[in-house]
Amino acid sequence: MLNNGVSMPALGFGVFQSPPEETAAAVETALKVGYRHVDTAAAYGNERQVGEGIRRAGLDPAEVFLETKVWVSDYGYDQTLHAFEKATRKLGVDRLDLLILHQPAPDRFDRTIAAYRALEKLLADGRVRAIGVSNFRRPHLDELLAATTVVPAVNQIELHPYFSQPDVQRADAEHGILTQAWSPIGGITFYPGWGEERRSVLEDPAIGAIAAGHGRSPAQVMLRWQVQHGRSAIPKSTNPGRILENFSVFDFELTAEEMSRIDALDTGVRNGPDPDIAREVFEMVIPDA
Ligand SMILES: NC(=O)c1ccc[n+]([C@@H]2O[C@H](COP(=O)([O-])OP(=O)(O)OC[C@H]3O[C@@H](n4cnc5c(N)ncnc54)[C@H](OP(=O)(O)O)[C@@H]3O)[C@@H](O)[C@H]2O)c1
Fold first, then answer.
1. Is 238 in the pocket of ligand 1 (CB under 6 A)?
2. Which of 35, 232, 235, 286 has the fewest CB atoms in 10 Å of its CB?
3. Which class is domain 13-268?
């Protein structure tokens, strides 16, 4: 249950880096497996294919909790209202369940606040059912809350056993914001393109031992850890077997000792980009169609 009473499935389906030509099939498979929440973003370039996947699965979009994100280049009051129009047109829906700001972008935080005020307007008009943020740390949350009215429903952050951001989780909890884990099985610690000095959390021996003890996979243990902590998690896969595997985490339980053993793996080292640093990609233009 989100802080405004809207309910959201604990486990959702992510599509970052899912090639557009594979996205519709992956979403269709996920919905047929039982997922009812999809997380995409304007910046992923596959919102259209997410909409296609929902239709292919024969579901009414109202049956799927649809989450997408406004990209930094669309920050601003009017620009963000327009970003909503672009997203809903591509997804083929009239309303979104959750719309979030993708980055805090502290180098232009006045526009971040203007963008969030546009989300508040869309919420008030019933065009979205909930609003939120992503990659916000405590100072970003404090500054946003001081300048706006609606408390974000979610804060989507990099969160897996090697980087669990306890201070951001505490800040979220203090404000009744649900923490949503991106890279919930540590994808960013092993998928290509994000730096060489990384240790794959999927190969962690402690997680491997817990998984063996339950006859489960390391990914299932990490997703179980996420939901058992009451967090939202949005694992991504384009592989039907792994899509099913990642959803099959509601029929076993980790002990308190196992949960603490996984909690103790936090290294405090971020694998993703630092949200405080502006990046060239922030200027990437999101096409109208
Ligand atoms: N807000 C943000 O800034 C932000 C940043 C990153 C991600 N996200 C969101 O969070 C979602 C999930 O994060 P993520 O995609 O970074 O990482 P992830 O879900 O932790 O991991 C995805 C990676 O793991 C592989 N995989 C999936 N299931 C597996 C399994 N059971 N066993 C072994 N490997 C498996 C996938 O490859 P295959 O496809 O080949 O299975 C892919 O390479 C994204 O898709 C996106 O929606 C948001």
1. yes
2. 286
3. alpha beta
**Tens digit of each residue's pLDDT (9 = 90 or more) over 79-126:** 999 999 999 999 999 999 999 999 999 999 999 999 999 999 999 999
pLDDT of 195: 67
Ligand 1 center from residue 63 Cα (angstroms): 23
Measure the CA–CA gap between 87 and 66, rounded to whole angstroms. Answer: 11
Residue 227 exposed, middle or buried by CB count within 10 Å (0-12, 13-18, 19+): middle
Read off the DSSP letter of residue 95.
-
Is the CB–ligand 1 distance for residue 245 below 6 Å? Answer: yes
Q: How far apart are CA 218 and CA 225, in angstroms?
A: 11
Assign 158 a pLDDT band (cuts: 50, 70, 90): very high
Decide: pTM greater than 0.85.
yes
- State in Å: Cα 191 to ligand 1 middle: 8
Identify the pLDDT of residue 191: 84
- Please report which confidence band the pLDDT of residue 255 belongs to, taking 50, 70 and 90 as the band edges: very high
